[in-house]
């Protein structure tokens, strides 16, 4: 072994032994000065939502962050086996639309009123945009989590208010949306402008 290699092996083994014997490690202070870290820092749930409408442009941005096609020609979230099998239903203008993130479109899915299954908290009836996450049972929870977090970050950056919700009748929504047997509804997310 040459001298340089010996020194680096010795240094890394010393470092490793320090790590393995310590019972706690004080980490360096996180550097949250970058734009992304600043947005993560301000991410929060805001339930005080106004009825002020969301424009189609803003809705498009919200949905792109949630599950759009990015410049690598994949999606804005990772999906198991790259199956891209997350579904996002959008309640917009009192109708239910299914987001097509490949063609950047909303396809009319249903005119069923889903509010009776969703509105267990007052702000739900007020919020102008609702996203309902669904997908194959195996990964739907993970995919929804990635997606709603992106929406939270977009909302934080744009000064929008959002709440991810598990407190609703997911089974009722699954039935009302007539989803295939292998798919489930996971979460409901409301988005709007904060009521100041
Ligand atoms: C899986 C999940 C389900 C949630 N369900 C609801 C809900 O039904 N209603 C609600 O008002 N907030 C809900 N929340 C929001 C949490 O209450 C909120 O994230 C938590 O209080 C922390 O606040 P923060 O998001 O501002 O950090 C949910 C959050 C998660 C992650």
Verbal overview:
By secondary structure, the protein is α+β, with helices and mostly antiparallel strands. The chain has helices at residues 3-21, 35-42, 56-67, 115-118, 122-126, 140-158, 170-176, and strands at 86-92, 95-100, 105-110, 129-136, 161-165, 183-192. A 6-stranded antiparallel β-sheet has the order 3-2-1-4-6-5, sandwiched between helices. α3 (56-67) packs across α6. The protein is globular and about 60 Å long. The N and C termini lie far apart (68 Å). The protein binds flavin mononucleotide (FMN).
- Strand arrangement within the widest β-sheet reads 3-2-1-4-6-5
CATH superfamily assignment? NADH Oxidase
Strands, total number: 6
* Count of the separate structural domains: 1
| Count, helices | 7
* Major β-sheet profile: 6 strands, antiparallel
Associated small molecules: flavin mononucleotide
The assembly state of the depicted protein chains is single chain
Q: Pick out the low-confidence regions.
A: 1-17
